[in-house]
From TrEMBL:
Compartments (UniProt record): Cytoplasm
PANTHER family from the UniProt entry: GLUTAMATE-1-SEMIALDEHYDE 2,1-AMINOMUTASE, GLUTAMATE-1-SEMIALDEHYDE 2,1-AMINOMUTASE 1, CHLOROPLASTIC-RELATED
Gene that specifies this protein: hemL
GO terms assigned for molecular function: glutamate-1-semialdehyde 2,1-aminomutase activity; pyridoxal phosphate binding; transaminase activity
Protein species of origin: Dyella marensis
Pathway: Porphyrin-containing compound metabolism; protoporphyrin-IX biosynthesis; 5-aminolevulinate from L-glutamyl-tRNA(Glu): step 2/2
Protein name according to UniProt: Glutamate-1-semialdehyde 2,1-aminomutase
Cofactor requirement: pyridoxal 5'-phosphate
GO cellular component terms given for this protein: cytoplasm
Alphabetical UniProt keywords: Cytoplasm, Isomerase, Porphyrin biosynthesis, Pyridoxal phosphate
Record's keyword annotation contains Isomerase: yes
InterPro entries in the record: 4pyrrol_synth_GluAld_NH2Trfase, Aminotrans_3, Aminotrans_3_PPA_site, PyrdxlP-dep_Trfase, PyrdxlP-dep_Trfase_major, PyrdxlP-dep_Trfase_small
Length: 426
């Protein structure tokens, strides 16, 4: 069957034809392709077309798809059974690895997705502080928990408004929303509500409004604010963890959060998430403490095997330096192509995470990102797709490079970009 035929059939059976909204290409228009297989830097669709993939399953595939070491680890684990519902040794190795690589994490709890990790982390923040308000940032995504599907209410800083039907107003009221990269706004909010704030959750490099790094001193400022007001600083490193540096954004910027959440890379492509932090906080989680959180499949042996194989691969000397250097080559190359074609364009990048914007401005905020030319991005996306390059199908998603992307892949990507921009100039 063709991509189109499959999509028609899928739409009859699943909402929007997909199991996660962004896959449906609603933002960029058109129809998604259906992947038949993936290897290294490439996806192949059901019609046999190959794409250089800059999405990498939305982040996990940092060593490329179907890496033999990860696959073999999974194959070995599968031989011993798929799920035990009892403790298994691989969970300890995973916890040892995470706590060693991320020094702010003394103890960790494995879960099955990024969403579960962030929901659990804010429950812990509330349980540990006895407070109920949570602070988040406009444009940051922390999964689909009720507390996160909230935007700032008009005018007032005080009450959040649900961004999805089904999120109770009462839940949204407990989420305060701030503009990212605006420290003065955070100071004003804490001055008014500090005593009620259980925790502040942030993507330390924003990756869900395209890629927006924190301004110099911003994360330090938030750290100081949380400490002063007794609120927990939660770094949502689901995207940045083991991506912008081996120790995540907290290592890259030298900040110690109270709690961290992880996903994507730690599962090596399997459904895995985790949250962790200081021992005295994590010891409040059941059954060590009273704050409840659980999971039938959490710490699953096959998922642990995939994640551990991945975490071994990324610890190889020079891995992150090489990846960051190549990401720079790609971003600078695309900038040079756009400049050459006279197209207003800018890029952001941190480690192996990058963002492309159709604007001349340096993008430092959600307002900047939404002011960029999304129609131009959508045309670029489709032009690249046609030429066998798969970028994230939304102007508000970060791009990811893997160690499997070769010089030839980068050169082919730049050539596709040149042709695309030239064609759309007409
Ligand atoms: N936090 C961040 C920063 C994310 O980027 C995502 C997903 N893209 C999530 C949480 C939610 O993770 P999941 O989709 O695994 O539930």
């Amino acid at each position: 069957m063709t991509n189109h035929e499959l999509f028609q059939r899928a739409k009859q059976l699943m909402p929007g034809g997909v199991n996660s909204p962004v896959r449906a290409f609603k933002s960029v228009g058109g129809e998604p392709f259906f992947t038949a297989r993936a290897d290294g830097a490439y996806l192949w669709d059901v019609e046999g077309k190959r794409y250089i993939d800059y999405v990498g399953s939305w982040g996990p595939m940092i060593v490329g798809h179907n890496h033999p070491r990860v696959r073999e680890a999974v194959e070995r684990a599968v031989k011993d059974g798929l799920s035990f519902g009892t403790p298994c040794p691989a969970e300890i190795t995973m916890a040892e690895t995470i706590t060693r690589l991320v020094p702010s994490v003394d103890m960790v709890r494995m879960v099955n997705s990024g969403t579960e990790a962030t929901m659990s982390a804010i429950r812990l923040a509330r349980g540990a502080t006895g407070r109920s308000k949570i602070v988040k940032f406009e444009g940051c995504y922390h999964g689909h928990g009720d507390s996160f599907l909230v935007k700032a209410g008009s005018g007032a800083l005080t009450f959040g408004v649900p961004t999805s039907p089904g999120v109770p107003k009462a839940a949204a009221d407990l989420t305060l929303t701030l503009a990212y990269n605006d420290l003065a706004a955070a100071e004003a909010l804490f001055a008014e509500h500090g005593a009620d704030i259980a925790g502040l959750i942030i993507e330390p490099v924003a990756g869900n409004m395209n890629c927006i790094p924190p301004k110099d001193g911003y994360l330090q400022g938030l750290r100081a604010l949380c400490t002063r007001h007794g609120a927990l600083l939660i770094f949502d490193e689901v995207m940045t963890g083991f991506r912008v540096a081996l120790g995540g954004a907290q290592a890259h910027y030298g900040i110690t959060p109270d709690l961290s959440t992880f996903g994507k890379i730690i599962g090596g492509g399997m459904p895995v998430g985790a949250y962790g932090g200081r021992r005295e906080l994590m010891e409040q989680i059941a059954p060590a403490g009273p704050i409840y959180q659980a999971g039938t499949l959490s710490g699953n042996p096959v998922a642990m095997a995939a994640g551990l194989a991945m975490l071994e691969l990324i610890q190889e000397a020079g891995f992150y330096d090489r990846l960051a250097a190549r990401t720079r080559l790609l971003a600078d190359g695309l900038q040079a192509v756009a400049d050459g074609e006279g197209v207003p364009f800018s890029t952001n990048r941190v480690g192996a995470m990058f963002g492309l914007f159709f604007t001349q401005e340096k993008v430092e905020s959600y307002a900047h990102a939404t002011a960029a030319d999304t129609a131009a991005f959508n045309r670029f996306f489709h032009g690249m797709l046609e030429r066998g390059v798969y970028l994230a199908p939304s102007a508000f998603e970060a791009g990811f490079l893997s160690s499997a992307h070769s010089d030839e892949d980068l050169a082919a990507t730049l050539e596709a970009a040149r042709q695309t921009l030239r064609a759309s100039r007409g």
